[in-house]
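The following record pairs a protein chain with its ligand, protoporphyrin IX containing FE.
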Amino acid sequence: MNGCQASTVCAERIFSISDLDFIDHYLNEMKRTEDPTSTFYEENGEKNLKAIVSDLFFAGSETRLPYTEAIVLETLRLSSIAALGVPHQLIADTEFHGYFLPKGITIMANLYTIHHDKKIWGEDANLFRPERFLNEDETRVVYNDALIPFSAGRRQCLGESLAKDTLFLFIASILQNFLIGPDPDCPVSDMQTTSGLVVEPKPFNFVLNLRTLSR
Ligand code: HEM
């Protein structure tokens, strides 16, 4: 035991009940207003809230934060958490790129290898570099057809949109609120993973420092 048992070290208080968000403030204003001409009033208020939230969500996830989206894509690439996808059985004899594949055999797509192929991603394929998914001035996300963490075809992952949106919101919220750094007492030199159907990082330490935001 090297004394580096994994635990998340949070340097400051994380949440407080007084940290109201945009929707809390909006709902409070809806409760407060008695003016029927107000945009916060009853039905009108509800309609406006739905419209604003959908504006924020779509505008935010589509255009505003390209670097965060690039982080999501790079995380999905480098981690390749469903490294071998899900096994499929051939229902007919098939010819693929000169290979004969007989009916009945099981096929597994090696997504991990595709995502770490230096011919596709370059010499730094094993490095975490979100910029590979950005254009030159880093204002726009550039997709790459070889990124298929949810696999491809008719049986590709049903949860792709949900998973990507959730990752985006998690990562954006964490980065908005915390500075993340290595634990100086237990630095990590490389990311070790567990093997299995789903790849996970082995436990490691890191430090979260609450950002001071002007709210
Ligand atoms: C980062 C998160 C996720 C990754 C990387 C991922 C990846 C995958 C992969 C590689 C497959 C196999 C596709 C194939 O065999 O062609 C799959 C299948 C599937 N995934 Fe996901 N998945 C994720 C999250 C989710 C979530 C959140 C849901 C549900 C809400 C979900 C539901 C499914 C289902 C139902 C299938 C089977 C689809 C079928 O066989 O028709 N996944 N996923």
